[in-house]
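Input chain follows. Return C-alpha cells only.
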Amino acid sequence: MTDMEHTIIKRVLSWPEIQTLVSRLSARLPRDFDALLIITRGGLVPGGLLSEELDIRNVLVAAVQFYSGIGQTLDQPIFFQFPADPILYGKRILVVDDIWDSGRTAMAVRERVRDAGGTPVLAVLQYKPRRSRYPDQPPEYYAEETDDWIVYPWETEE
C-alpha cells in the first residue's frame, strides 16, 4: 500500500453539503415506510430532514450508545430509549443515522427492530465499507461511500 492509501482526510461538511447528501439519499429511498426511526445523536439532523422530504410524520427515536469515551467502545449497546415492540410490530421502519463507520450501532438497532417484529431498512448519509464490521450486510441506502473522517456541522470538534 502506498502512503496515500493510509492517509485519512478530515472533511468538515457544510450545511449545503448536508442538504445535497440528504436530497441524494431521499431520491434513492422508496416511499412506503410506516415510520422513521432516528438513531441519536448523529441521526437527529439527517432524520429530521428526511422526514420532511419523505413526508413521514411518525418519527421515533433510538437513543443508543456504544462508546464510553474517545476510542473506547462497549461490548453491548446501551439503549436509553427505544420504541415499544407493539409500535414496531408489522411495520416497515426506515432507520436513519449520519454515518456507518463500524456499523455496530445501526446493526444493533436493526436487530432490535427485527426482534420487535418490524422490518428495518437502514439509511445513512455516509457509508465506510472499509471500516465496516459487516461487509456482507451494508446499509440498504446511503448517499456516498467514503474513507474520510467526517465532521458534521452540528458536531463540536474535539
